[in-house]
Amino acid sequence: MSQMITIELNGEQQPFPPGSSVSDLLAIIGSDGKSVAVVVNEQIIRPENRLSHLLQEGDRVELLMFAGGG
Amino acid sequence: MDLLHFGSYTFSSRLILGTGKFSNSTVMLDAVRSSGAQLVTVALRRFNREQAEDDLFGPLSAIKGITLMPNTSGASTASEAVRAAHIARELSGSPFIKVEIHPNPQHLMPDPIETFEASRILAKEGFLVMPYIAADPVLAKRLEEVGCASVMPLGSAIGSGQGLATSEMLNIIIRESGIPVIVDAGLRSPSEAAHAMEMGCEAVLVNSAVAVAGNPPAMAEAFAEAVVAGRKAFRSGLMQKSGSAIATSPLTSFLGTL
User: Fold this and answer.
1) Which residues from chain A sit within 8 angstroms of residue B45, using beta carbons?
2) Looking at residue B56, what is its pLDDT?
3) Which of A32, B28, B131, B149: CA 20 to 30 A from B183?
4) Set of chain B residues whose Cβ sits within 8 Å of the Cβ of A33
């Protein structure tokens, strides 16, 4: 497993295969990505760029969605 | 037709519904449908893979005629709110943003300085900014001047059910405002919503009063009817108050001899 990279996903350290794209990450965690916003190192990754955006060691990834609120 | 306008958006419903605090999403969706609300607020939260079914975007988007108005709840500074607004717009595809910055969870009063700054930045970026504020006429005017689409002063504290405790200040805000005034927070009963509309509010935003009602969909419908009645009354011109009685029946020429 020494080949894995570590990223910070919603505040928690998580191992991922090197070369993983944002789309790969969404597939791994079981999200279709349609209703999730992805922010990597404070930069919004738009849906059309998720396939090509590769994750790097130490990236801070935030996945956000809508929940109930007033 | 009496429509509510924000930018290029028009709405026939003047009831804005919040989606928090419902017992489950099925009840919430039923309440949204029976309210007839066309603007619906949502909050931004971290994705939780254990609770992925809690996502509201899909089911809300499937209801015809709904525009989402994300809020920035959770932000305690202007910069956090601006960041939240950018992310929310990616998800909602809507230019509406409810700027909500309340740093103290004990009273949830909005921070006027951070709210003003976030609203100024977001209005400049083209958002339709709907700031949640204390019922402060000076702040309301300043927010209008920086291009907000509306101001949303509180009737009373969020979730308190204390109704229109700020009505004196709301009257001043409504009188002075060149943009729609929407009472947001504190309403408990449909009659309070009707009262806010009779005062000249352009809309009301209700969440807790519907979400924690015994029958949320029915209460949503009751609020919708009250908002329609209050708006109609406002547009019909309420009579002036008088300090003394003014008879509605003739007091003279009654049976001649009596």
Assistant:
1) 64-67
2) 84
3) B28
4) none
Hey, of B47, B89, B108, which one would you mutate to test binding to chain A, going by the most A CBs within 10 A of its CB? B47
- Confidence at residue B253, expressed as pLDDT on a 0 to 100 scale: 75
The residue that leads in pLDDT, A2 or B59, is B59
Low-confidence ranges of chain B (pLDDT < 50): none
Secondary structure of residue A18 in the 3-state scheme: coil
Contact by Cβ (8 Å): A53, A26: no
**CA B179 – CA B162 distance, rounded (Å):** 25
For residues B143 and B141, what is the distance between their CA atoms, to the nearest angstrom? 5
In a domain, B127, yes or no: yes
CB contact under 8 A, B87 and A42: no
**Alpha-carbon distance values, B11 to B6, B95, B110 (Å):** 9, 15, 27
Domain ranges of chain A: 5-64
Contact B43, B74 (CB under 8 A): yes
Q: Kindly tell me the burial class for residue B201, based on how many C-beta atoms sit within 10 Å of its own C-beta (0-12, 13-18, 19 or more).
A: buried
Residue B247 domain-assigned (yes or no)? no
Question: Residue B165's pLDDT is what?
Answer: 94
- Please report whether residue B253 resides in a domain: no
Q: Which domain holds residue B75?
A: 4-238
Enter the tokens of residue B56: 């509201």
Is residue B66 included in any domain, yes or no? yes
Long-range contact pairs involving B230-237 (C-beta distance under 8 Å, separation at least 24): B230/B193, B230/B194, B230/B195, B230/B196, B230/B197, B230/B198, B231/B2, B231/B14, B231/B197, B233/B194, B233/B197, B233/B198, B234/B197, B234/B198, B234/B199, B234/B200, B235/B2
**What CATH number did the domain enclosing B150 receive?**
3.20.20.70
Interface test with A, best of B41, B90, B188 (most A CBs within 10 A): B90
Contact assignment for A37 to B208 by CB distance below 8 Å: no
Provide the ipTM.
0.88
Is A5-64 assigned to CATH 2.40.170.20? no
Structural tokens at position B161: 């059910």
| Nearest-angstrom CA–CA distance, B46 and A34 | 15
